[in-house]
Amino acid sequence: MTPHVVPDPQAGAAVKAADRAHVFHSWSAQGLIDPLAVAGAEGSYFWDYDGNRYLDFTSGLVYTNIGYQHPKVVAAIQEQAAKLATFAPAFAVDVRSEAARLIAERTPGDLDKIFFTNGGAEAVENAVRMARLHTGRHKVLSAFRSYHGATSTAINLTGDPRRWASDTGSAGVVRFWAPFLYRSPFYAETERQECERALAHLEDTIAFEGPGTIAAIILETIPGTAGIMTPPPGYLTGVREICDKYGIVFVLDEVMAGFGRTGKWFAAEHFDVVPDLMTFAKGVNSGYVPLGGVAISERIAATFETRPYPGGLTYSGHPLACAAAVATIQVMEDEKVVENAARIGEQVLGPGLRELAERHPSVGEVRGTGVFWALDLVRNKETREPLVPYNASGEANAPMAAFGAAAKKNGLWPFVNMNRTHAVPACNVTDDEVKEGLAALDAALTVADEHTV
What we know:
The chain is an alpha/beta fold. It has helices spanning 9-22, 59-62, 71-84, 94-106, 120-135, 152-157, 191-209, 235-246, 298-303, 319-334, 337-359, 398-409, 431-449; strands at residues 38-42, 45-48, 53-56, 113-117, 139-143, 173-176, 214-220, 249-253, 277-280, 292-296, 363-369, 372-380, 385-386, 412-413, 415-417, 420-423.
């Protein structure tokens, strides 16, 4: 029972009824879902109208990097609403300029110009448009294990099954295999082999597609929804070198990995690599008001110095969203949120997950950094057969469904995708909250263990 609210099942039923009558949900068969009616949230927790409280190990959709309802960010939004609630993007507005400045201060290299969008998918759309216009080329290379958003270009660049139903605008999209040693497409036995073979595969793909036709390569710095596969040492710098060799724009998608999630402001810092364009969203303001953007290098920005950029959004750099970003970044600085994410990963979450892997036969691999971790669940540790088949649904997905239900029964809201569960709490999560989450995962994994052989 949460101390924050008095249970009110009748109110919850009314919320649920209105939702079912009128809300059309993402990625869902509408008649087969049963959304939880949420009564409130604070910090790392949320609760329903029956008084059940959940530790959120999903951070919403991996975006509440400073948790729910941080009072300083809420106050900043309220103050901005009273001062200037909205204004068109063609004007210079103080809070928009300040948000851009603070973001540019933290991006690597010379990514000093910021084009604001409403979210990550629009950021990817515009980054690709910039790359195509800058190079005069049309093809874009993306990885099979990836997610870049649900708008037209972004979904066609995406490598997971959510693309399939909309795969009608893929002209110019070419996919390749990025490194993933645990399930290596290159039969590698070491990270060095995986890196070398993945780079050779990428360069071969470029050669056969025609280097002069390729505008950009887009990669999630550390892929998120696809499995949190940290690239091996040297891979991203190798991609950077290949891009430079062929005049290809290098785009890093930091929508999920950015703003402290990996224990750095941006995941690119782990690999000492600077892209030409970087997309961001989610953690930039903890999702309190929709905001995303593209951080643009000096070279790309110069293309549009006297040539108009043919793109824009009505709400680009919305004052309320920018005020939330300014406040969020200040909170992250003042409260050392990025440092906390790094420490939690190194000292609490990472070791705790590895200890679970030692005891549970269903855990094939633990991987991650900061507060960005994945457990690869398997039927057999030796064969590495996934606990459920790729893109499983219905009865085929029953083991993962049972695992998720067990986690919720123990007060943990889990991130579940295919045969994986991701541990992605808020970047300011406490040691005790992580230990609570690990205990709930421990109990839920015993259910997954029942499906191993």
